[in-house]
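Need C-alpha cells for this chain, all 124 residues.
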Amino acid sequence: MSTPIQRALDSLNHAFAIDPFAMRSILCAQVPCARELAYDHPFVQVAVIEGAVCRDGAVHEDSHTLSTMGLLNGAIEAATGECIASMWSKEANARGEYTFLGFCVYAQPKVKPTVKPEEKSEKA
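Here are the C-alpha cells for all 124 residues:
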C-alpha cells in the first residue's frame, strides 16, 4: 500500500510526464513574500537572500522568496512529516541549463532560518 508521500510524488511525476516544460517552468518561479513567512511559519520553506538587488537597482538587507516547492513542502510536511525534492541533472546543457528529472522524497535535513536578521545584529 502506498503512503501519502508516495501518492503525492506519483501525482507530481505523472504531471511531469505529461508536460515537462510546464512543470519545470513552475518549479523555477520565485515570488517575493513577507519576511514573516520565512521565520514564523513552521513548515513553508522560504529562500532568504541577503543583500538582494531589485530590478530598480535598490539594495535590500535581505529578500524573501517563495517557490512552488516551498509551498508544496509546507503542506506536505504538515500532513506527513516528510518533504519532497525536485531532481535535476548534475551537468548543464550547452545553454547552461540543468535538466529537470522529476520528484523524489527529500532525504537531507531541512534547514529553516531560526534567527531573524534583526536578532543577528542585536547579538553581534
